[in-house]
Specification:
Layout lengths: L6 H9 L6 E2 L1 H10 L4 E4 L14 E2 L20 E4 L5 H11 L5 E4 L2 H7 L12 H6 L1 H4 L5 H10 L1 E5 L5 H11 L3 E5 L24 H12 L4 E5 L8 H5 L4 E4 L4 H14 L3 E7 L2 E7 L8 H4 L12
Parallel strand pairs: 1-5, 2-3, 2-4, 4-5, 6-7, 6-9, 7-8, 9-10
Antiparallel strand pairs: 10-11
């Protein structure tokens, strides 16, 4: 349901006086069904990726005067304008009235109210309507956007370890929409794990961590394809397991395994995401020698004895 307007929104409406004319979502829907001369304008800008009303023309509010060629030449013809929540469209309507348009209406509650009432939404993207909603906050971020989310959904990430580091990493990778997530672990869930290993619960004690983690990730995001490996990584199997993945995330607590992962990523030409944590301290880094960067052995040529490394 559309939320009530805040005091500042009400003041905005009042300041525009009688020139402001809103119509309900139901009225807008009837107009669209019965008026072939109606022009629909979406002023949301980037948010148009999340779906739009059928037939809408996309003109950001700052470009209304610049892109007047998209508007009707007859300024008496009806124009229906909307944004996400119905506030920006009121400002856009004022601009259009100042441009001489006589028959402009704004949809009360905007696109959000339209969608909440179950009216048809169209999209030109590869995403389903549910995915557009699920990942909408990702796609609003300038450094992700629609293309970045598509890359996430096509990504294949291997998570080595389903313990204190692997659980939160797996949780957020799944929630963000990574398409395929591999999980490598040979251990079982213990009661002492549950204070920090957030993919597991009391009912999972005694289960394989990979099975518990897979079930939890399927609950968080059923779109994610989870592939599990009940294996201890060795020089014999590491390249076979790595083969189908783009990025390797190290969430292990073994210094020997960390150097194995680093070396395998170096020779396989894959990015190696290093992570380690003890009590309240942690380290994280990205090693990708294929792109001209260093590897873990550039910092530590030889691994220290395992009995000297805290876990």
């Amino acid at each position: 349901m559309a939320t009530e307007r805040s005091q500042s929104d009400s003041e905005l409406l009042k300041s525009m006086g009688e020139s402001v004319e809103e119509i309900s979502v139901e009225e807008a829907h009837r107009l669209l069904q019965n008026n072939a001369l109606l022009t629909v304008i979406d002023v949301r800008g980037r948010e148009g990726v999340f779906g739009h009303i059928k037939g809408a023309k996309f003109i950001e509010i700052d470009n209304l005067e610049e892109q007047k060629d998209k508007l009707p030449t007859d300024k008496n013809l009806p124009v229906l304008i909307y944004c996400a929540s119905g506030i920006l469209s009121i400002q856009a309507m004022k601009i259009m009235k100042n441009m001489g348009y006589q028959n402009v209406r704004s949809i009360r509650g905007g696109f959000n109210a339209w969608r909440d009432l179950g009216y048809k939404v169209e999209t030109d993207s590869i995403f389903t309507e549910d995915q557009l909603l699920r990942y909408s906050r990702n796609m609003l971020l300038e450094n992700i956007g629609k293309d970045g989310q598509e890359r996430l959904m096509n990504a294949r990430v291997l998570l080595v370890g389903a313990g204190g580091l692997g659980c939160p990493a797996g949780l957020y990778l799944a929630a963000s929409g990574v398409g395929t997530l591999g999980i490598v672990d040979f251990d079982t869930v213990e009661l002492s794990n549950l204070n920090r290993q957030v993919l597991h619960g009391v009912a999972d004690v005694g289960r394989l961590k990979i099975d518990s983690a897979k079930d939890a990730i399927n609950r968080i995001n059923p779109d994610v394809n989870v592939i599990t490996y009940q294996d201890r990584l060795t020089a014999r199997n590491v390249f076979d397991i790595f083969e189908d993945f783009d990025i390797i995330v190290d969430a292990t607590d073994s210094i020997k395994t960390k150097f194995l992962l680093n070396d395998a990523c170096f020779f396989a030409g894959k990015p190696y995401i290093f992570g380690g944590a003890v009590q309240f301290m942690g380290q994280a880094s990205v090693f990708y020698p294929k792109e001209g960067g260093p590897c873990l052995r550039c910092m530590f040529p030889k691994p220290p004895p395992e009995n000297l490394v805290p876990t």
